[in-house]
Amino acid sequence: MGIRITDDCINCEACEPECPNNAIYAPEEAWKMSDGTTVADDNEHEAVSDDYFYIVTDKCTECIGFHEEPQCAAVCPVDCCIPDEENVESESELMAKKDKLHA
Ligand code: SF4
Fold this sequence. Notes:
Blueprint: E1 3-5, E2 24-25, E3 54-55, H1 71-75, E4 81-83, H2 91-101
Antiparallel strand pairs: 1-4, 2-3
The structure holds iron/sulfur cluster (SF4).
């Protein structure tokens, strides 16, 4: 499953540079599939959160193919990067997503 950021986030920015998929954005920041990926989709999407850093589910692979564990969760000082129970994906689905993001 993907990872999500809860409202315990203190906007410290520690997670954002750690993501291999550029799936993490600052509050109010628009996101694009093409940011940090090989996907040729430059469409801008509205920020998912205006208050806290957020993770784009379509870009989160739980770091599969890059790291042993989700890097955002590993560095978060308040442990607010947690499994997103509403977006459960198998390891093979996450690997396929990773291959699609980095073709
Ligand atoms: Fe990015 Fe990995 Fe965190 Fe997903 S789990 S948002 S891929 S750092």
